[in-house]
Amino acid sequence: MYHEKIFSYGTLQFENVQIANFGRKLDGCKDVLSKFELSTLEIKDPDVVATSGEKIHPIITYTGNPEHQIIGTVFEISFEELIQADSYEVSDYKRIKVQLDSGVFAWAYVNAEISTDKVQKTAVSLG
């Protein structure tokens, strides 16, 4: 039933956000995403702010520097839940496939301004 993996480093780790978006609490395991750097973003969508309870959300940008690491959680979700997660994230984010330090491939929401081609050539080996 749950065939998609999603890496969360922000509000999708909050139980209240999971319940609001998926109707259930997600179980996950800790993992690390290298070559990305964490910064913050002010969310202007009142529905997202109401759901998360936070006006400032984390956002990650690709740097290519292996010393930059993002600690987060990998969750297994259905394709339908992945689409629901897309609806929750504002347009400043885009979803890309990344390879985590554990070797697991997962979806992650990253800064929409980064070049996906650059990331896929250097941070992700899609096999």
Automatic annotation (TrEMBL):
SUPFAM superfamilies, per database record: Gamma-glutamyl cyclotransferase-like
Signal peptide start-end: none
Domain Gamma-glutamylcyclotransferase AIG2-like, first and last residues per copy: 6-113
Superkingdom of origin organism: Bacteria
Pfam family membership, one: GGACT
Protein's recorded name: AIG2-like family
Upper taxonomic lineage: Bacteria, Pseudomonadati, Pseudomonadota, Gammaproteobacteria, Legionellales
